[in-house]
Amino acid sequence: MLLAFAALWFLQNPPASRPARPDSARTDSMKPAPAAPLSVDEKLSVTHHEIRVGTRSLKYTVTAGMMPLKSEAGVAEAQIFFMAYTLDAPVGGSARRPLMFSFNGGPGSASVWLHLGALGPKRVRMEDEGWMPAAPYELVDNEHTWLEQTDLVFIDPVGTGFSRAGTPELGKKFWSLRGDVQSVGEFIRLYLTRNERWSSPLFVVGESYGTTRAAALSGYLVDHGIALNGIVLISTILNFGTADFGTGNDLPYAMYLPTYAATAWYHKKLGPDLQPSLRKTLDEVERWAASDYLVALAKGDLLSAEEREKVVDHLSRYTGLDKPFIRNSNLRIELSRFDKELLRDQNRTVGRLDSRFKGIDALQGSERPDFDPSMAAIRPPYTAAFNQYVRSELGYKSDLEYYILGGGIGSRWDFGSDNEYVDVGEVLRGTFAKNPHMRLFVAFGYYDAATPYFAAEYTLAHMRLDPSLRAHLTTGHYEAGHMMYIHLPSLIQLKRDVGAFIQTAATR
Hints:
CATH superfamily of the largest domain: Alpha/Beta hydrolase fold, catalytic domain
Strand content: 15-25%
Structural class: alpha/beta
Largest sheet: 10 strands, mixed
Number of domains: 2
Number of helices: 14
Order of helices and strands: HEEEEHEEEEHHEHEHHHHHEEHHEHEH
CATH class of the largest domain: Alpha Beta
Helix content: 25-40%
Low-confidence stretches: 1-36
């Protein structure tokens, strides 16, 4: 069984639709033919730009190109595509200016979402609420760019974007939790070395599976002499056991309940007493989910009929779902069934990445949604806008397909765990112990049903972090989904929150 799916690509391929595990007994004739040796291309495209942010005019340079990853024998095994944004003539010089490395998740996602959604000086124009605009799609100046506080380097891990492994067999080295972290860590070392940025305050930001990568990467870097000033986690999954529904694992049902309640609140499916205040409603739901609901689930078949009906009453109250549906679900509501059931009376589904979005299925009576309407709304604009931008404005010419989400990873992802659920929270705790000056900011979307906020909060509360370090962990909550920055008010709030975080974490 594939390990828990946390983020974009795997979240779009639930267990029933994933390809079967490769047959270990296949014949040599079925193996892919060897590829030609990797052709190393280190030519960089360098362009100069300017943007106005508030009352400031920011002049900056963009460097786009490939960074080769070589074996100990000096043979190029892969190339990582990156885009670096550096402020021209910063006060105090570039060596002391904060530097942030950014990536998205998947595994299998390019860095385009954070790049053109929130951090970079250009962003994809969406409707203010995040809805999909009509084509053709365009970029606009991002006055909320993080470039105001930090230089930015966007990394496409091997198998995403333009980044490629030399052969499919070599690709397997990078398509794993361990190999991915090592390759991204090596890229960071090379970038610091080639650009003489070892004295800069250092940050990483990851989204979705990128938060798993960021947490594991923090431990890898500190063990290789690179101490981070700060980590930003957006839409977080650190312990996959909190979010993977499965027989014998009841924890996700409680962890998802506040997200269900927020979704029902947004679509006005809750009772009148729960609709006035989202935060007040979630406080009530979280208390019950973390106490009575978990106890009831733990009792299993030993739950009395009276106790069962009390749980049914609460679940119906907090989700807006009919009581017969909850009874027939054995008090355990999986995400895809919730997404289908909540608005079934309207012949609509709700989104997975962002449950504010509505979809239309072929059959009202089907069991699960046909597709994720929130993914359908963002993929075309980001794909078109990036492909135009990288070639026209950044001057990087390539006929390669830019793997924006899936398609470039040729084998199953190896999470490298003997048990089913990966948990990198312990790595993060160890990094804090080794680097007690490091700070962490975690951004949650209330309507993120891919990496539910309550599950991430649960993980953070169970890291066994020393009390002296708890103040180094701060959070922000946003009334949007997985990519909360497509929602303009959340984009503004996120910039404000992260700006304050960077200032604090970069100060000695």
